[in-house]
Amino acid sequence: MAFALFALLLAAGYASAFVPNDSMRIYAVTTEGTGLVATLNLQIEPGSGKIWTSVTPLVGTSTQNAEKVAVGVAKRLANGGERYDYKFTINSSASVVDGPSAGAAMALLAASMLTDRDLKDYVSITGTISEDGRVGPVGGVFEKAREAQKTGVKLFLIPKGEAMQTVRLEGGVRSINLLEYAPQQWGLKVAEVATLSEALQLAHSELGKIDINTSAGASIPEFVPQKLSLKGGLGPFKTLTTNYISETKIVISEARTALSSSLLEDPSATHALLEVLNSSEQTISKAEILNEQNYLYSAANFAYLARVNAIMVKEISTSPKLLGLNSSAFDMRLIDLKREIDNFENDLSGPVPREGIEWFAAAQQRYMYARRAVEKLFDEGRTVVVGGNAENEQEIAIAKVGDYAYAMAWLDVAKDFYNLSQESQTFVMRNGTIGQSATSSLYDANALLQSLNDGADKDDIARRVDSASALADMNWFEASYFDSLSAKALVQSENEAAGKDGNALAALLEGKIAKVEARLAASAAPAGWAQLYLDHAKYFLQASKYYDSKGLPSGSAENLKSGISLAFLADSVLDASAQAVKAYEGEKAVERMPEGGQTGNGKNTQDSGPVDNTLIFGMLVLLLGIVFVLAFLLIGAIYAKAPPAANAPSAILSQKKAGESGIAGANDLDQGKIRLNQLRQALATGTITKEEYIGKLGEYLDGIEKMRKDMEDEMRSALPKKGARYGMLKEAAQAKDPKYLPAVVKKPFLLGPAKRNLAKQAFARPRTIPGILQGTSGKEKALNTHQFTFDTMKKQQREKDKRAARGNKKEK
Questions:
Q1: Is a pLDDT exceeding 90 seen at residue 413?
Q2: How far is CA 706 from CA 288, 651, 669, 676, in A?
Q3: Domain endpoint, select from 497, 522, 542
């Protein structure tokens, strides 16, 4: 009797019953946009709570993190499972499996098995899983659902809010409700779920009794504009946008690969980065659709925003030290970016492409946005968080990396516009004809900025005025004129729209569109920007009517205000284009500047006549002799001041004691970092100028980078021995089951459990940014998101309330 009671108590340590082995079909989307099926298998057996993952195919760290979260949620839901081991296998044709979108499937499968229920083979789910059991959004829901019905799935569960999908069909681009479309077209029942509990309930219900008709049509379909006919002058920009989208998809793929192999130790930060990357994938999908509809302005802007996020994820994943405040790794990246910006200035200072002057000015504008962003990061110097903690420091560091990513993306776009401008047939030398108009416009724009009331969106306008001033200082008057006129247009649109109701706003927008259309028809000047802005103003007019018909007057009003801003921008840039073209009408054509034939101030360095080769040779010999003498004196001075020590490269490499070279190198790196901190302090106290700081910083960072590479070379020589030891450990770990290795279990080092959402908030923080095209940011950034659905507005209001609450707490 006692033995039976003991056995019963022992068994109570485990769940009363469980399914030891089960599987589920899961779905992904390839880079080509097609669905891909895989099989998720889970084995549960008595153990100590370890989570194992298969080694074939290779499973990335994001999927391993999803396994860990999924099992944790499932165990809490099942009230048991602590004394089991979990072995996941994903059978797929892919050589590498990675991504968080199988998290909900893992959690559903584990929870079903722990509650002793076989999961029906016709059930599948897509979505991420959070630690509190929420099913999160993922990309490619339509493609996954379509592939699911092809492979026998009858019930497909998707994240809440993902039913409305904008997709390409045979009849063109449409916005569909997947809850209605899937049963009608494929015979597939699709249901939205917000939590794992909801998913578990539906997954184990009788298929015929699941009623989802009540939710069908509850969300308003996203507005899809009618396809535009492409204007002749926009053909090159169409090509640029298409290529930019393709390149951005590559950057996103690289970011996902970097995150999969990242050394990030904080699961919360990893999860936040994954959500940012998922957002990038959804954004680039919107860009592709809008590009297909020939709304090039929005397509390019969406692609730009997707690239910025992908760059940020890639940089942090590659170098987690960027999450530390005052990171030397960040300083090195900033120095490299500044050098690249400075080098590009030479190209923009050359002859003006007459036919491509709009794109040339756009390149100069984007160059300036990148330069000013980098200068701002340099001006901030060393950041000290007073009374803060690790979370505050990480948030500031993330913000800096985000600003760096924006600058990097601006520079990329500037180069694209420059290359587009170089397709011109005629090049002329720069003149100052438009300088007076640009200076006068800049004065007016600044005055208008000062006159705006406190409630207006000043950040975007102030940035344009600042850029226009800096461009004028460089005598790049055409670009300065574009920026200042755009700033004036935004102020005028704010003033014109103030206090008007929906009907008055619609009348204002329709009238402005008609005016710009008439001007475009009568203009012989290049009008690429004006046409791009006008097309998008028409889009917002259509969108306002659509949402008004759906009973969303607030969404309608927002679209009208956005359209008005764009219509005013179209009118202003048409003036800038016309004057820029007129300024160079009588100029004599010159040869296009050859590669490397420019200087930073735009002067032509081409051959101006015969040169004595003997003289050149003699000067080179003299210069070489001077270099040798200086090198000899420098070496002598170094040896005179400092005898060979442990920190000299030759001495380090000659040390025989194991580990001494690594310690010496580490000490050198520490000394280098101390010098960097002293340099930052000197800048902060005004002991040195910003120019001196940048010069010294470059020298210090180059030295640190060289030492780091030297240490890496030494470490590589030790890798074979380390690899052999790792092989022995791997064999020992596989002794129980050769197919599995322990899943990665990462320990948080920055974020505590109570603050696990802080990283996500930091990554998603609003920024004032100029866009890819005419410097869109602030309020204008909202012009391009065109998602004024009821659900979106509610979400925006909730976020606004949260921010207000946080602000009140800080004030208290």
A1: yes
A2: 43, 16, 10, 15
A3: 497
Spatial distance between the Cα atoms of 132 and 278, rounded to a whole number of angstroms = 19
pTM: 0.67
The answer to whether residue 121 is domain-embedded is yes
Q: What is the mean pLDDT of the chain?
A: 75
What are the residues whose beta carbons fall under 8 Å from the beta carbon of 303, sequence distance 6 or more? 241, 244, 245, 248, 283, 284, 287, 772
171 is a domain residue:
yes
CA-to-CA distance for 469 and 439, rounded, in angstroms? 8
Domains: count for the chain: 3
Structure tokens at 726: 């790792």
CB burial of residue 306 (10 Å; 0-12, 13-18, 19+): buried
> Which helix (H) or strand (E) covers residue 106, if one does?
helix 103-114
Q: Which domain holds residue 673?
A: 655-729
- pLDDT 10s digits, 265-293: 777 777 788 888 888 988 998 899 889 99
CA-based nearest residue to 71, from 43, 37, 39: 43
CATH classification of the domain holding 113: 3.30.230.10
Q: How far apart are CA 767 and CA 314, in angstroms?
A: 19
Average pLDDT over residues 139-156: 92
Structure tokens at 623: 């210069």
Residue 208: pLDDT band with limits 50, 70, 90: confident
DSSP state at residue 229: P
Q: Can you tell me the mean pLDDT for 650-674? A: 45
pLDDT tens for each residue of 445-469:
999 988 887 766 788 899 899 999 9
For residues 493 and 509, the answer to whether their CB atoms sit within 8 Å is no
